[in-house]
Design brief:
Largest sheet of chain A: 7 strands, mixed
Oligomer: homodimer
Number of helices of chain A: 13
Strand content of chain A: 25-35%
Distance between the termini of chain A: 31 Å
Shape of chain A: globular
Radius of gyration of chain A: 25 Å
């Protein structure tokens, strides 16, 4: 963590100094967020970093969630939590998914383990795949917001009645029924984001709807405390029984609870999940049948539900092509079956994509056209998710006695582990994603994908760390300059020339410069670096020593990420950690040209 | 983390269910702790784990510390924090000490770096050596206590007037002046622990005093925010100038603040540190002189002090040999110079040694004679600390122009890194430390020293983890059974025989059994383990899958810790993580004989 740069402050460094917001309006805001789910809270947490942005977040519920539906947290989401500063807390509490077991009938027709594989391939991410109650993820976001300079806290008991767009400075108007007082409340906003779930009022106010077919397949889910002799009860396990259907086991945080996804019956046309009168006893009986001959003694059902699998998608995620003012994110844009463990992750990634863009436009750094990239980028991701989810659900429901089908499911599952981990998301070329002019100099850091972290050693304090953890969720763009072979921070070399150009560019308020050298960290003198690499920081103009890194000989980032040792390379990283462009270290025009499209 | 074993509970799992303490007295308590420093808070945190122990902790100050004196946290202390469950938070906030630089005049008389070494040797501990404001360590302890079943919170504004010992159930009586209300308060306690610092009232009430000589050397310390061209400003650096004296640089948490320990003048006989009228300007001037020709531009002094080096020790740490009721811990027993970074760590280790013993006696598990081992064990440690500190201080004050002396300092420093890390503490044979009957079967896990962690893979969920992190600060003894070559949990083998004996022993309430196997974790079936290794747990009799581990092929604990692969070995681990005995896996009599001395 970086703190004390504006002077020593006692107490918890996660708590920012409070901004003076005594003249802030609650009925005229910069951003109004509808819904305190994973999307809404990610967005609020991102915006809460900015003392000059007036954000409000409201929810229909009377208070924070205590038992959540979602629980799967992909590696990529944990990386994002690291950028927000609470990954260590999530990892501490969560169940860590290390391996996946596949079960199906053996040749004698008896249920047996057919395979057991690593859940995440080596070096896919520096972060684990974990499982944690969605409510706890909410709690971490709520703490973060409450500790931000504006001490952002949700307003509950607000039922959204309508959203309309007009003119003026705050063109979006939202009307709420206050469920606590019975009165009505009107809020005007520059921007409104509907994170209000699958039955989004914001979406219907925009005249949009979710489209797509249902698989007409009923599933049950339950979080239980149980005793069993099934040996893989603490592993993620996909079980395809001969005739009784399929079951997915997701062990839960704390070491005792476990989630079961249980295949129930196909639904008839027009029939809804609720029509079947599913009970928790039905789920337990079905789980027992699938697990037979193993025992299952359920001691407590913490939560259960029945649902119909469906993959549905909204045509667009904003209200207009030019100057969009109303957006939807998360389940309001796309729904899918929960088993793929994607829902919460994709929703948070939606908001992480949108948050910095809203901040950049509201802070007059970028033109409003930046906001149009949100819908384009995230719609493509949602489309991909839905296709994946449909295939996955279909394959999982095939009977375990069909060996070929079970093999197809396992192969598909393994192949798509990268997708499930959230690290395959790739944004296409646009005003904020380049075409990878020097992609051949960094073959493992693909334009459009998230920056794939690797170990480095920080020069000034010899700290072994992940380079990706220097990319905080602070709304800054970053340039990472990887030095070529001959460049160890000496004057006159390409790195020095680039630093000088960066210094002159005037970009330093919005674009932070980081550098990585191939030299051993004990051989370099931080005081001989170009001043742009050890810039003054904070109210006291202290020296920022957090920008320069050297190769960790035990895990060489150049080798791991295919970086050209002779030439080095320049990466431009977006505030959401995606690689925006890969350029030659000497391509100063490429850098200025790129940012000319980003900033006003 | 382990939770939900008594049923699902929403919310932060670090918050225990509240115990009913409505009939608990505040003027008649089990343990009364005087002082909210590192020793007092460690003790309170340990005792707060037990719903059935009535603890009070008081302090003279009006509230929690916000700026602390101490900042060095040794590897061993971070290991202990892991047992308390907050190591991840400390590591997240702290500065990590990775390397140490040594500076002295070169042959031209110019200050130059003479050496740079790793601060901690490889595999000394799984935890880093970190630096963090003592006040933040207090905060983590205060959170832990407040989240415990009795919601323990300190009572401030209590100035201790006297401590007396009488008879009866609560033989210790403490009288306080309440600094808030002006009234007097009397508390009766079964046990009282004075963690009230170098000028301990508890100690003087016991008729004891600190003994030892002062080195008559004045030092200054300051925490500053500064700009300098000294290249190792973010490294721990020991600087011995030619004539201007010595300086120790300790970079601080947050990336900007730094602590300087500055050698000032020798004191004349009878002169005290306060007599010199030291100012912060004097400290800055002196630091500049030592660092010359490097610049030092101090922007803010967050805290500073001047002190005299002295090593002093109390003859005993308790009031009687038989049935001690009054104890002292931390600075009340021993003082030393702060530069060695030992003070906070040794104080916390004092309390960690005492806490479980008090709990064991109060809960009628052990005879009161157990408490006598506290003074014996910790006095020996304090003696060693003081000898180390005296040598270190003397060597550091030698002039840098004396190359031989500077070499002696560096060599001493490097050799004693293990001591400084806190991992060399070794308790002698006693009723709770055996003689290592099978020490030759586990050469790297020495009787008397703390259990030296190594990686393993947890069988049930394939989690790669540190075995040491299974040793929680919960007051439990543990047996770790390392299987021999042929034993993979099959019936009839030594492990099975031991498990059966453990089952019959009736020890399971106070002694948890863990097992490590050499087999690959994918080859073993947890359901075929002896039931003692997957016991029922909690109110719902759920299965505890947290006790069985397999070798991690990437870091083989048998090889790392010298464990006999053919025979295996049994370790008995104390509640404070020290190895109490090493026995042959078949030595069932050795186990029962050992615990016959521990438990009533």
């Amino acid at each position: 963590m970086e703190y004390h740069q504006n002077g020593f402050r006692p107490g918890d460094p996660a708590i920012s100094p409070a901004a003076d917001i005594s003249d802030a309006c609650t009925d005229k805001v910069d951003v109004l967020i509808i819904g305190c789910g994973p999307a809404g809270l990610t967005l609020a947490a991102q915006l809460s970093a900015f003392a000059d942005i007036n954000t409000r977040i409201v929810d229909q519920k009377p208070g924070p969630l205590s038992v959540g539906q979602a629980d799967g947290i992909a590696c990529r989401s944990v990386e994002m939590f690291a950028a927000f500063g609470f990954a260590h807390q999530v990892v501490h509490e969560a169940y860590q998914v290390n391996e996946v077991a596949f079960w199906r009938p053996n040749n004698d027709g008896k249920l047996a383990r057919s395979n057991r594989i690593a859940d995440v391939e080596p070096d896919l991410s520096e972060m684990p795949h974990v499982i944690l109650n969605q409510a706890r993820v909410h709690d971490f976001y709520l703490d973060l917001m409450a500790n931000g300079p504006r001490r952002l806290v949700p307003d509950y008991n607000r039922q959204l009645l309508s959203v309309t767009r007009g003119d003026g400075d705050h063109p979006v108007t939202a009307r709420f029924a206050r469920l606590d007082s019975g009165t009505e409340e009107v809020v005007h906003a520059r921007y409104l984001v509907g994170c209000d779930g699958a039955r989004s009022t914001v979406r219907s106010s925009m005249g949009l709807s979710l489209k797509g077919a249902s698989a007409r397949q009923l599933w049950g889910v339950m979080d239980i405390l149980a005793v069993t002799d099934f040996p893989d009860i603490r592993l993620k396990a996909a079980i395809q029984s001969a005739e009784a259907g399929s079951l997915l086991i997701i062990p839960r945080e704390g070491g005792y609870m476990v989630r079961f996804y249980i295949e129930l019956d196909a639904l008839r046309d027009g029939e809804r999940a609720a029509d079947r009168g599913v009970t928790q006893e039905m789920l337990i009986d079905k789980a027992r049948a699938i697990l037979a001959p193993h025992t299952l003694n359920v001691r407590e059902v913490a939560w259960w539900s029945a649902y119909e699998i469906g993959q549905r998608l909204c045509d667009r995620f904003d209200d207009t092509d030019e100057d969009p003012r109303i957006f939807i994110a998360g389940d309001a844009c796309h729904t899918h079956s929960p088993k793929a463990g994607q829902g919460m992750n994709v929703s948070m990634a939606d908001a992480f994509n949108l948050g910095w863009k809203l901040a950049s436009v509201l802070r007059d750094q970028s033109a409003p056209s930046l906001l149009s990239t949100y819908g384009t980028e995230r719609h493509a991701v949602a489309r991909e998710l839905i296709d994946f989810d449909r295939d996955m659900a279909r394959l999982f429901s095939e009977r375990g006695k069909d060996k070929a089908a079970a093999d197809r499911f396992q192969a598909y599952f393994a192949r798509h582990a990268r997708f499930t981990a959230g690290v395959e998301t790739s944004y296409s070329a646009s005003q904020i994603v380049g075409r990878g002019a020097a992609q051949h100099h960094a073959t493992g850091l693909q334009v459009g994908k998230r920056f794939h972290s690797a170990p480095v050693i920080r020069l000034a304090d010899a700290k072994p760390m992940q380079l990706g953890h220097a990319l905080k969720a602070d709304g800054l763009w970053r340039i990472i300059a990887f030095a070529g072979r001959d460049d160890a921070g000496e004057p006159g070399k390409p790195m020095h020339a680039f630093c000088a150009a960066y210094d002159r560019s005037g970009l330093s308020d919005a674009v932070a410069l980081l550098a990585v050298f191939q030299a051993g960290h004990r051989t370099m003198d931080p005081m001989r670096l170009h001043p742009a690499l050890i810039p003054p920081k904070g109210a006291l103009d202290l020296t920022d020593f957090h920008r320069v890194f050297c190769v960790d000989p035990a895990a060489d980032i150049y080798a791991m990420r295919g970086i050209n040792r002779d030439h080095g390379v320049l990466l431009i990283i977006r505030p959401d950690q995606h690689v925006a462009e890969v350029l030659d270290l000497s391509d100063l025009n490429g850098v200025s040209g790129f940012f000319a499209k980003v900033f006003v």
